[in-house]
Design a protein that fits this description.
The protein has 22 helices and 25 strands. The protein folds into five domains: 92 residues, Ubiquitin-like (UB roll) (Roll), CATH 3.10.20; 112 residues, Fumarate Reductase Iron-sulfur Protein, Chain B, domain 2 (Orthogonal Bundle); 158 residues, FAD/NAD(P)-binding domain; 133 residues, FAD/NAD(P)-binding domain (3-Layer(bba) Sandwich); 79 residues, Alpha-Beta Plaits. It starts with a strand and ends with a strand. Helix 4 packs antiparallel against helix 5, helix 4 crosses helix 18 and helix 9 runs parallel beside helix 16. The protein is elongated, with a radius of gyration of 30 Å. Strands 2-1-5-3-4 form a five-stranded mixed β-sheet, with helices on both faces. The protein has a five-stranded parallel β-sheet with strand order 8-7-6-9-20, sandwiched between helices. Strands 11-18-12-13-14 form a five-stranded parallel β-sheet. Helices cover 29% and strands 18% of the residues. With 677 residues, the protein is α/β, with parallel strands linked by helices.
């Protein structure tokens, strides 16, 4: 073969006569995307993704099937080429009916690979499950116990019977790992020589510390409280989150080389200016520690407490005397923690005052149910009109009876007063659990919103001061759930890493293919009830702060994990289609329309097929014929009716199949997969 020379993207490339443009580009380290190309089979040129532009040539050329000519000047990333690739990918994706990620993964604010760790739990590999979890959540035993699990709201198992118990499975695996002789510890990179200071030792601060320590940074976490944990430590009652569990997970983070400093207050012991001088980057994750007042007459009387304040006192070892009758105002999880704590402190009559109905209450339904079991009295559709006192101390609360009117901006029906209708309760204590505010003394240099939170980029956490970042409850939207703060901390850690390396961090915004499904899609699935979490008897738990849940048995956890439908694509990490889609930032919805019906998945020996993911590239057909020598597969039909035939359950096909799995290996989209049989 004689030698030829091409200029590709301005670079002189040497090849051999008879080689394609793609072969020469690959040999010279120049990337050209492909979908239907495989070196061991004949070129097909079906996908159109590998097109390139030749100087002076009228048409774009398919690099995989075009034989190069000496002297050609090729551009693989011209404007024309990129546009053509985008169109090709948009057309392919418009007919692609598959899930890149499971809805549980997409619904997790921390972007945890739920499907991945649930599968490992099903297989009995708890350590591997914890490795996957800790990639995003380094406090899995703690978070698994208290997370309101938005991921479960998106679980498609609900279309069969009930969603997976994802949060409890997380806690199960983490508990087993901590109890093992060799708990999981991530590999820590070589020291970078740079230091990061983190203000706030709650879930956001601890999570960022973990992520940055793993990257090789020297991290110091400073917190104003006696122990680390933030709201997990001081806002969550012991019966929901045993503090020994949290302490063990905090200690595991410290063992990565993270320095923990408690009883350190900004503006008193340290200043933001001093921290900027001491550290190469600073992260503010201080949370929201002030309770919001009720806002009615009498809310300054003695005996009117903030929910967070009361819970913090109890978690510090205090036992406030709440009296016989306690009213808790609010319908969220803090209100549930406050009312159930009041029961355990000896209150005989505990009321929850909420201006809407149970259906609108933001608290988890389980929390409401357990509060009811413990004797809490819910006064739905009531709102404090006045707190009545004697000698400066609360003695009664006057409630305005409400009714639901038109929906507000959040979509919930707005509560409106029923004119002239009130109810009066005898109370010794009123606890406000209607919201939290930030304490930002010492952070005056940072720009703040009108509602008293720090202004920070919603993805990177960057503030108005270079090198200073902020995440969690003290920023932008205000107080939220721990797992959301953890998700923010994950991205802030990436942004800090980029900043310290002199790079610009671009927030990822990947496109994921999603299927639209109904109950009919899972009609053939065996019904299996969700694992029931056993709890202490209500009569027993009223009198102490012992953990309410008993945890899953090994048998329960494995069976529950096996209920997973595995919605996300098994081949996501290797899928060329989604990789190229995101590489070229295409808009797959531009050609939205009818899709080929995703046929029922069928089996051939140990192979599963999903026709909805097939892009008809023909690689499986060509590999079977040209490489394996069987030729039992083929493309049949035209347009939307085109499918790979014969059916994989066809007896003749099964009999002739070599069971080599080469068709699976060749598939670029995850349309074929091995079965664990």
């Amino acid at each position: 073969m004689s030698e030829i020379k091409l200029i590709i993207n301005g670079k002189e490339c040497v090849g051999q006569k008879g080689q394609t443009i793609l072969e020469i580009a690959n040999a010279n380290g120049i990337f050209i995307p492909t979908l239907c190309h495989l070196a061991k089979v004949k070129n097909y040129g079906a996908c159109g993704v590998c097109v390139v532009e030749g100087e002076g040539l009228p048409k774009l050329m398919r690099a995989c099937s075009t034989v190069a000519a000496d002297g050609w000047k090729i551009n693989t990333e011209s404007k024309r080429v990129v546009q053509a690739r985008k169109v090709a990918l948009e057309l392919l994706m418009s007919d692609h009916d598959g899930d890149c990620k499971g809805p549980c993964h997409l619904g997790c604010p921390a972007h945890t690979d739920v499907q991945g760790y649930v599968k490992q739990i099903a297989l009995g590999n708890d350590r591997e499950a914890v490795r996957i979890i800790k990639d995003k959540i380094p406090l899995p035993a703690s978070v698994g116990r208290v997370c309101p699990h938005p991921c479960e709201n998106d679980c498609r198992r609900a279309l069969v019977e009930q969603p997976l118990s994802i949060a409890y499975l997380k806690a199960f695996a983490a508990d087993n790992d901590m109890a093992s002789a060799d708990p999981f510890k991530p590999v820590v990179a070589e020291p970078t020589g740079k230091k990061v200071g983190i203000i706030g030792g709650g879930p956001a601060g601890l999570n960022a510390a973990y992520q940055l320590a793993v990257k090789g940074y020297k991290v110091t976490v400073m917190d104003m409280m006696p122990e680390m944990g933030g709201m997990l430590r001081y806002g969550i009652p012991e019966y929901r989150l045993p503090k020994a569990v949290l302490a063990a997970e905090v200690e595991a983070i410290a063992k990565l080389g993270v320095e923990l400093k408690n009883n350190v207050k900004v503006g008193q012991d340290i200043t933001l200016e001093g921290l900027k001088a001491e550290f190469d980057a600073v992260l503010v994750a201080v949370g929201a520690w002030k309770s919001t007042g009720i806002g009615c007459e009498g809310d300054k009387l003695g005996g009117v407490l903030g929910g967070i304040d009361m819970l913090r006192e109890v978690n510090l070892g205090g036992r406030p005397d709440l009296g016989k009758n306690v009213a808790v105002v609010g319908g969220g999880n803090v209100a549930m923690d406050a009312c159930r704590t009041s029961v355990r402190l000896g209150a005989e009559n505990v009321y929850v005052i909420y201006r809407r109905t149970r259906a609108e209450a933001p608290a988890e339904d389980l929390e409401i149910e357990e509060a009811l079991e413990e004797g809490v009295n819910f006064k739905w559709l009531t709102n404090p009109a006045e707190i009545i006192g004697e000698n400066g101390k609360v003695v009664k609360i006057k409630l305005q009876v409400m009714e639901l009117g038109e929906p507000d901006a959040s979509g919930r029906r707005s509560p409106v007063p029923v004119e002239g209708k009130f109810e009066i309760l005898d109370v010794d204590t009123v606890i406000s659990a209607i919201g939290q505010r930030c304490a930002l003394e010492g952070f005056e240099e940072l720009t703040q919103t009108r509602k008293g939170t720090l202004v920070a980029d919603e993805r990177s956490g960057a503030t108005n001061i270079p090198g200073v970042f902020a995440v969690g409850d003290a920023t932008n939207r205000g107080p939220s759930i721990a797992v959301r703060a953890i998700g923010e901390a994950n991205e802030a850690a990436e942004a800090i890493d980029a900043y310290l390396n002199g790079a610009e961090w671009k927030a990822p915004n990947p496109y994921y293919s999603k299927r639209s499904v109904t109950e009919a899609d899972f009609a053939d699935r065996e019904r299996k009830a969700r694992a029931e979490m056993s709890c202490k008897d209500p009569a027993v738990r009223r009198g102490n702060f012992d953990a309410v849940i008993n945890g899953f048995t090994d048998e329960q956890a494995r069976a529950e994990a096996k209920r997973c439908l595995e919605c996300g694509c098994h081949d996501f990490e290797e899928c060329k289609l989604i990789h190229h889609t995101n590489l070229y930032e295409v808009n797959p919805d531009r050609f939205a329309g009818a899709k080929r019906a995703a046929t029922a998945e069928t089996n051939m020996v140990c192979i599963e097929r999903n026709q909805g993911k097939c892009i008809l590239c023909g690689l499986c057909v060509r590999v079977c014929e040209e490489d394996v020598g069987k030729g039992i597969l083929g493309l049949v039909g035209r347009g939307f009716t085109t499918v790979v035939k014969p059916e994989f359950r066809d007896p003749a096909t099964i009999a002739d199949c070599a069971n080599c799995h080469k068709c699976v290996d060749a598939c670029p989209t995850g349309a074929l997969k091995f079965l664990n049989k």
